[in-house]
Amino acid sequence: MSLTQKKKNLSLMGILVSFGIVYGDIGTSPLYTMNAIIRDGGGFKNLQPDYIIGSISLIIWTLMIITTLKYVIIAMQASNHGEGGIFALYTLVRRKKKWLIISALIGGAALLADGTITPAVTVTSAIEGLKSQNLGLFTFSSDQNVVIAVVITILLVVFAMQRFGTAKIGQAFGPIMCGWFFFIAIVGFCNLLSYPGILKALSPVYGLQVLFSPANKSGFFILGSIFLATTGAEALYSDMGHVGKHNIYFSWPIVYLSLVLSYMGQGAWLINNHLNVQSTALNPFYAVVPDSLTFFAIILATLAAVIASQALITGSYTLVSEAIRLKILPRMNIHHPGNKRGQIYIGTVNWLLCVITIALVLYFQNSQHMEAAYGLAITVTMLMTTILLHNFLDTKVSKWLSGLLTAFFLIVEFSFFISSAVKFEHGGYVTVLITLAIILVMYIWYFGNKVRSKYETDNEYGCLTDYKDQLVSLSQDEHYPVTSTNLVYMAKVKKGHQVKKSILYSILDKRPKRAKVYWFITMVTTDSPYTHDYTVETYGTKNVIQVTIYLGFKKSQKVNVYLRQIINDLIEQGTIEAQPQRYTTSKGRRVGDFKFVILKEALSLATNISGFDRWLVSARIWLQNHTATPIQWFGLSFSDVRIENVPVNLGYKPHIKLRRINHKKARQYETFEEERQ
């Protein structure tokens, strides 16, 4: 990247937006991480200074190794046109080994699944701090059902805001998150001064020692709680496309310092006060805050928790968008409310996440149960990312350095995976089940297409040049009624002018459709936001036209509008004949009527493929027919659209040739059947 491009990407506003979009998840980890560590230590009364110092040392160095080194320094070098995340990384390395698709499927599904609990655990942790708080003349209820109602209301508002775009949200949330990090840093630093010995946590030696210390009641499995401090690292990488990596480079050191001071402050307070704690429900995050600022801290924490949910949601959009382009997930309607490609909104993903997140709140009821289930699936994603990252590093650094870094990260992350495995029975099974469901959809969509391609033969496609004479003849044949002036098929024309024969069958065999012009339209989305170009192939005729439309990602796919303009252009150029209308509300109209034909596929009963392959292709076709329809995708809701069912025949099955018999032989068959009855 040139210096000019770097300057363009890096800006004060970009850094501010990055606070509002990228760091919500990892930035709110101080709300619940220390709670989990206290439970692992046997409760407040059983805490020992060495245990607290060692635990915070593990947090500091986990953030350094996983978040800073792996993701900020290394993984963010692997960007696909500025976008990050496990699917962007897979795109860069998929040609190296075919089996890497498995890592991408598992990692992407686990990230999406584990992310459903992020909004639930962060918002619930924050709102629980309001219990029994005096707000002037009003005292907040201590009833958990009230907390759940407030959490659900907040989540509904957050998900409803998404359609306005991440740029607007980032600009609104950025200053709040800046205030959040400043607040936790100052509070942490002030508490740190009460026990400067907590600075020993900066040494990794204390972190290693606590793993084997008798003060650590959980032993090695404490890493499952330590991991909560860095669960937002993968989302940070996924959100890179929303703000640009250079803005993350400049903002992350501020975030990291704030987190370290917050954890140290909580640790210092615990060492000084753990024996005096009366309530086991006390959250050390709020305990370190002066009483006069407690209500302010709760409000700020709630806002930060909302922003944490935002980070997850925008990261999910990016992942799903990349998965659609890679043909790993079914096509969905993607909107671009911002001016950058990374700023997107996918309504289907948004509301599906909303439903699942609220269901998890109702199922787990409180943040303690959510924390027990949180983080298991994300360890799987990190392992899969490391595998993909190894293949990327092989192209950038020497083999031995790539292998050394990969081995190091795998050892660290596998340790977290093993220590988090105990969470399965405490609720981790929920995110595992969601992961498996997403993997199933991805597997069907991706491998169903592979299986279909394997069984497709050359007979499935026909060359337009071979059929142009028939099409021209049919266009002029007055023995057939006119179906439409312009008959349009949304057809991906492959190299060599190859098009699916089902389209040609629809025109020529299935009640021949006479039209003045037959249009075969291919849509291509470009990386530039406002591209609006097209190419035309006429095959030397005025009746058979192939058009490829190149649209920027910001342009809506209103095919009927674009096609009308293209026809006007071609008429002016004399490429096709004018289409004057005798009866019209538009004076001087030169463009005739349109009929769009959409082919809806179904697997033919004559298909001769194995049972599992047959199920896989059938399932993919079902998904294809029940997700974003071509009518929605191409903006044809108000156009004249005809849907035709077409069979998909895969595999060759020889037909049995019937033989003709006389009536005497037929009577023998009938007599035999009567005797059986």
UniProtKB/TrEMBL annotation:
Reactions listed under catalytic activity: K(+)(in) + H(+)(in) = K(+)(out) + H(+)(out)
Pfam families: K_trans (PF02705), K_trans_C (PF22776)
Keyword Transmembrane helix belongs to the record: yes
Record field: transmembrane: 12-32, 52-73, 99-126, 146-164, 176-198, 218-237, 249-272, 292-324, 344-366, 372-393, 400-422, 428-447
Positions of the K+ potassium transporter C-terminal domain: 485-640
Intracellular or extracellular location(s): Cell membrane; Membrane
Domain K+ potassium transporter integral membrane stretches: 16-460
Main localisation: membrane
Domain of life (superkingdom): Bacteria
Topology within the bilayer: Multi-pass membrane protein
Record's keyword terms, sorted: Cell membrane, Ion transport, Membrane, Potassium, Potassium transport, Symport, Transmembrane, Transmembrane helix, Transport
UniProt keyword annotation of Transmembrane helix present: yes
Protein family according to the UniProt entry: Belongs to the HAK/KUP transporter (TC 2.A.72) family.
HAMAP family associated with the record: Kup (MF_01522)
PANTHER family reported in the protein's UniProt record: K+ POTASSIUM TRANSPORTER, OSMOTIC STRESS POTASSIUM TRANSPORTER
Function: Transport of potassium into the cell. Likely operates as a K(+):H(+) symporter.
Protein name from the UniProt record: Probable potassium transport system protein Kup
Organism of this sequence: Holzapfeliella saturejae
Gene encoding the protein: kup
